[in-house]
Amino acid sequence: MSIISKDIQKAVKLLTDEQLVAIPTETVYGLAGNIFSEKAIKSIFSTKKRPFFNPLIVHISGIEKLENIVTHIPEKATLLANAFWPGSMTLVLKKNEKIPDLITAGKDTVAVRVPNHPVTLELLKQLPFPLAAPSANPFGSISPTKPTHVERYFKNDIQQVLDGGSCENGIESTIIGFENDEPIIYRLGALALEDIEAVVGKVIVKNKKEQSPDAPGMLARHYAPSTKTFLVDNVAEEVKKHANKKIGVLVFKNSLNNDNLTEIILSKNGLMQEAASKLYDALHELDSLYLDVIIAERFPDNGLGKSINDRLQRATFSA
Question: What predicted TM-score, i.e. pTM, was given to this entire model?
Answer without folding.
Answer: 0.93
